[in-house]
């Protein structure tokens, strides 16, 4: 006899047509699966009643694969074949993994993504993640009594294309059909937003095992708009364990530790951290492989002291996101805490102090992301009637085009919601120019050389016109999947050229965060560089125009003295321009100014002459004024 | 004519209604489909229909349209756990045959 769930009015499915959908939080330290049952999102526990599944996979020589709690307890014994925090390697090359040296794994560089050498052979992080997802899929199918129609899987907001693709591949490998990848903070907001029917500006402070994500979202009538996201892809609860570990090894002078000892101490450090949530003092004691005993007492005060810098590091991205969204702390109506690490009492105090309000904690911070994903999955398979859930995403880094002088002209600024389209008119730089080359770039910096190059394309067939007369409309369009297409169209002839690019292609999240902070740190330098480049472009334009005019009518219209004066000024400016000295901004401007001044008389004579030419030999009546 | 809810089923329904935040009760029904001809439906109710028959069992309002009631008179709705799975179960004295999966039945 099948067990039935209550559905929304009018949404009853025909027998055997139940659309079972789950939300999966594929986390760095823990993963879990949730589903909406009888209108309520619940995490699905295992036989022992545990909802969390440690994201740990243990490969044994006989081909047996353990996932979860058993694998984790074996971690200390067989670290090389026990893969923990595999999420950090998803879609990453070996160069992206900063602390690869301190990890107990044997990494193998392979195109696109690292591989891990284990007893069962070389494994891709995708395969390891798939093992975790497989366990969750089976648990869900057993709990829901049928095959799944689809799953929503959450990823950190900063995951780039490669990492998102890797996550999708892992899901496919595990036999799941992915309805959508959802940003973790957004999932958390869905869980809170719908369950509590709250409206306003909300922040999601997500300190997971390995990543920190901070997002600002606006919730209005069931519509979620991401106003800003920021974060640190290399900061998480694991680092708090590491801080205790470092304190242990330093204070007890433990060196020459084996990988097993290292893992054991890290596990002890994590347990101590968890105990300090409720206790003021905790004891760490264990025996190492060489039978020596490690014993230490750690107080909560000491722990707070040790991890103060880590906690402080989270507020940089918080401030940046607030600035991006043009918001003050007072505008925030609520802060959602996500991730097991947010259970730490001193973290909650720090967040409360920063935002002047108590963070929302009524949903389990470990489960909230999966619950939100489950709600989204339920809506996507069509089990929810009526009030539609719309999710808007943003462009993480500004998109622009290279203009004269190697400057980036931003066309779509970052944090604009997608889908989005923006157009800007450009013009030709030289007389008779018939083609234009476009260079599409992404980044916050003013100079193209410091932004990420995305694509190049040419527009040909511009009718020859004087410089500045052509109107070329460049349109940037980003669709709902984050795909960018750029087109350029010459307005008079309708000649068009276009290209499609994926904005985040090839950008790692470290690069994204790096590029963001560099943009802020170098704003002053960039501004000066921009001014210099603009001055150079102006000078070049004036030189070109003057030289052309001199060749055309300099001999007829200028005295020897005037001729020499203009040429010496041309040489002086040309020389300054060639030197390209960054400090020469002022002299370049002055020199351009002088050339402009000495050619004023010449210019007016040319003007008179062309009027004369136009009028000479014609009767006054024949001229229409 | 009546249908009833076991106390477990009633408390579950009440809990689901509470967390949903709206709804006046539970609608039971049958529709013609499935491998054995008829299938049960189980839905939240936001608005009662004029023809609805309304019962109250263990504090929960149960709504059934008159046609469905013909096939469901005397049914008891229970909430059961089977392994990891849990959900509602119809004990319908009118059902003569259930399909293997129990999602549909015939009278």
UniProtKB/TrEMBL annotation, chain A:
PROSITE patterns in alphabetical order: HSP70_1, HSP70_2
Keyword Nucleotide-binding: yes
GO process terms (BP): iron-sulfur cluster assembly
InterPro entries linked to this entry: ATPase_NBD (IPR043129), Heat_shock_70_CS (IPR018181), HscA_NBD (IPR042039), HSP70_C_sf (IPR029048), HSP70_peptide-bd_sf (IPR029047), Hsp_70_fam (IPR013126), ISC_FeS_clus_asmbl_HscA (IPR010236)
Keywords for this protein: ATP-binding, Chaperone, Nucleotide-binding
Molecular-function GO term, any one: ATP hydrolysis activity
Entry similarity comment: Belongs to the heat shock protein 70 family.
PANTHER family: HEAT SHOCK PROTEIN 70KDA
Protein name listed in UniProt: Chaperone protein HscA
Organism this protein belongs to: mine drainage metagenome
From TrEMBL, chain B:
GO cellular component: cytosol
Keyword Metal-binding: yes
PROSITE patterns the record matches: HESB (PS01152)
Keyword line: Iron, Metal-binding
Domain spans labelled Core: 1-103
PANTHER family from the UniProt entry: IRON-SULFUR CLUSTER ASSEMBLY 1 HOMOLOG, MITOCHONDRIAL (PTHR10072:SF41), IRON-SULFUR CLUSTER ASSEMBLY PROTEIN (PTHR10072)
Name by which UniProt lists this protein: Iron-binding protein IscA
Source species: mine drainage metagenome
Gene that this sequence comes from: iscA_2
